[in-house]
Amino acid sequence: MKRLSTLLIANRGEIAIRVMKTAREMGIRTIAVYSEADANAAHVRAADQAVCIGAGPVGSSYLRADVILDVAKRMGADAVHPGYGFLSENAGFAKACAEAGILFVGPPTVAIDVMGDKARAKRAMLEAGVPCVPGYQDEDQSIERLTSAAKAIGMPVMVKAAAGGGGRGMRLVHQESELESAIHMAHSEAQNAFGSSELIIEKAIIRPRHVEIQVFADEFGNTVHLGERDCSVQRRHQKVIEESPCPVMTDDLRAAMGEAAIGAAKAVNYVGAGTVEFLLDQSGEFYFLEMNTRLQVEHPVTELVTGLDLVEWQLRVARGETLPLTQDQIQLNGHAIEVRLYAEDPYAGFLPSTGPIHLFATPSVPGFRVDSGVASGDAVSPFYDSMVAKIMAYGKTREDARQQLVRGLQETALLGLPNNRDFLIDLLEQPEFAKGEATTAFIADCYGDQPTKPAVSEESLVLAACLQHRLGRETAATKSLGIAPELLEWSSTGRTSSVYSYEVGEELSTVTLTSQGSNAYIAQVGEATYQIQVLSMASEHAVLVVNGVRMPLHFVATDDATIHIASASRTDVLVNKAILPPSAGEEAGSGTITAPMHGLLLSVDVEVGASVSKGDRLVVLEAMKMQHGITAPIDGTVTVIGGKANQQVAAGDVLVVIEPTEE
Predict the structure, then answer these.
(1) Cys staple from 169: which of 178, 190, 301, 380, with CB 3.0 to 4.6 Å?
(2) How far apart are CA 147 and CA 149, in angstroms?
(3) Is the separation of the CB atoms in 211 and 276 below 8 Å?
(4) To the nearest 5 percent, what fractions of the chain are helix, strand and coil?
(5) Entry's InterPro entries (predicted)?
């Protein structure tokens, strides 16, 4: 058996913490690496030791294989666990570890090499007899050849980065006229994300399910599968909800897909944890999509239904043990569903968000699991992926798991920056998902290009006013001496009233709050009246009764005017305009386009003096591994260019100013 007493985790965030948890349970010492941007990150705090490896950008830190390997040697690490992303599928890094006498917790380099290139992988699978989607995966990468191959396959097609994953370098093309533009964009995004611009073209299977099989193999030729995960619910080809088992799986279909997945692994002499991904069409036919030669983000749902620790299996296989179980011994029990909590704004085209996390709170209840890389007081950086946590629920049946997950999310709060908590709850409550009928087209079918943000309710305004009033009262009380609690709401003219104004759409809504005693209030909003009782109120949690309905809340006040609130139904950020000067918060003008987040300005597609129309692309900003085309909000003439290509910009920096066309 190989020595494995000290493990370096070449990753960050929740997966680094996840690996450390199992390593610690096995008596293995852990070493974290971190960038300057992650100096105070949760994974650094969780490790036995931690070493800084460079600046914030991944190219200066987490992708520096030489630096990470040097740290492993200096710190006496026996093994390196790459997590997922970053260097996890880098054959050169795996080879360098082996040459240094350090165990790489992953498959052999040849398997990474073949399966890390979609074109080579598909050729290998065709040779091994694994069902594949019709497509083009040859070496000729000229625009002419790619275009002609796509036309020969027939629209619609998927243009995909051969070396990629996570939706980057991927475009769905419906019309031949869109081909060249899609190929150019995919080339650029693939080169920036993976260092390779090679593409493949595949026939687009419309409304399939995305079903993957978890496989495991040891050095002695034993290979098993641990059932499937349905990962069909996606946005921009990135997974949002995963579950096990697949709602439409049958014993025969599972056996066939499992056999194909094992065949794919054996074709490349696989060792360790891997995932073979398939597209499952409505007729029950399935096609090889790709193989991820690492632990998947969604591996916990497999752990929940099998009762196994997949990281433990990885570490045991890495140190030369046989697989803990045979195929006949692996059983699937119950159902598990996972959602990915992202720092992004679903109501603004799923734009990634960055900034401080004022509060991250989750419930502790049976059957509910949270794998997170952040805590209250941390920040989401522009340098890395926008996922902040994986939230899971397990139940005896699929409906048990779904309801438990909805309830857990309703008791979860991520306050401080836009996120998709409310959107996830809405997804899980959609009838199509509840019935187990969701395909890869589910989000687009339900919401179109982007979901519509629900209007702020009067109830939300009342909650904000009451909380802000109580906070103001407590602040005043701390500055006063000897005031009895029952007198805090009293004045010589009778019960006190306070006025709060909040912006709802383009209008201001006013809440008049009148005290009815130390813990009771009447709120007037227009013609509506609300009776409120404050049952309890701590630093970040309160329980209010509004018109007879008990409402637990999480909240954070970031200043006297601004309050963030998460209730079971929604998350709001409300600003009391009554205490702000009239000009506060006004936009600089509809023709001023600012950077929505920190990032790299990849290209500037206009110049001063150019005439533009609403919707024309102005610049391309790369942030959180994705490229974002920023378009003109109005017709007009460009008067200012605020940056140039390959320049880092901060959120709020002016990118372009447009002088509106006079009507």
Answers:
(1) 190
(2) 5
(3) no
(4) 30, 35, 40
(5) ATP-grasp, BC-like_N, Biotin_BS, Biotin_carboxylase_complex, Biotin_carboxylation_dom, Biotin_COase_C, Biotin_lipoyl, CPAse_ATP-bd
Could you please state the CATH topology (level 3) that the domain comprising 209-447 is classified under.
Answer: D-amino Acid Aminotransferase; Chain A, domain 1 (3.30.470)
Assigned token pair, 394: 């397990």
Vertex 165: Cα angle to 160 and 166 (nearest 5):
115
Domain made up of 592-660: CATH architecture: Beta Barrel (2.40)
Active site residue 421: no
| Cβ contacts of 168 within 8 Å, gap of 6 or more | 161, 189, 190, 193, 194, 625, 626
CATH of domain 134-203: 3.30.1490.20
Sign of torsion over alpha carbons 517, 523, 529, 530: negative
Q: Which residue has the tokens 């087209």?
A: 441
Whole-number pLDDT of residue 585: 33
What's the confidence (pLDDT) of residue 589? 44
Residue range 393-412: mean pLDDT, rounded: 98
User: What is the pLDDT, as a whole number, of residue 479?
Assistant: 59
Residue 350 has pLDDT above 80, yes or no: yes
* Whether the predicted pLDDT of 508 surpasses 70: yes
Mean pLDDT of 600-608: 89
Confidence category of residue 480, pLDDT binned at 50, 70, 90: low
- The predicted pLDDT at position 583 comes to 39
How far apart, in Å, are the Cα atoms of 426 and each of 410, 431, 552, 563? 11, 10, 19, 23
In sequence order, which residues have a C-beta less than 8 Å from that of residue 218 and are 6 or more positions away?
Answer: 271, 317, 321, 322, 323
Structure tokens at 45: 């705090």
Cβ of 576: how many Cβ atoms within 10 Å?
23
Compute the average pLDDT of residues 49-56. Answer: 97
Dihedral of the alpha carbons of 178, 152, 260, 231, in degrees to the nearest 10: 20
Three-state secondary-structure class, residue 402? helix
pLDDT > 70 fraction of the chain, expressed in percent and rounded: 93
CATH 3.30.470.20 residue ranges for the chain = 209-447
Per-residue pLDDT of 654-663, as tens digits, reads 889 998 887 6
Q: Is the peptide bond before 451 cis (omega within 30 degrees of 0)?
A: no
Domain covering 6-105 assigned CATH 3.30.1330.10 in the classification: no
- CB atoms under 10 Å from CB of 549, counted, come to 8
Catalytic residue chosen out of the listed positions 294, 316, 319, 402 = 294
> Which residues of the chain form CATH 3.30.1490.20?
134-203
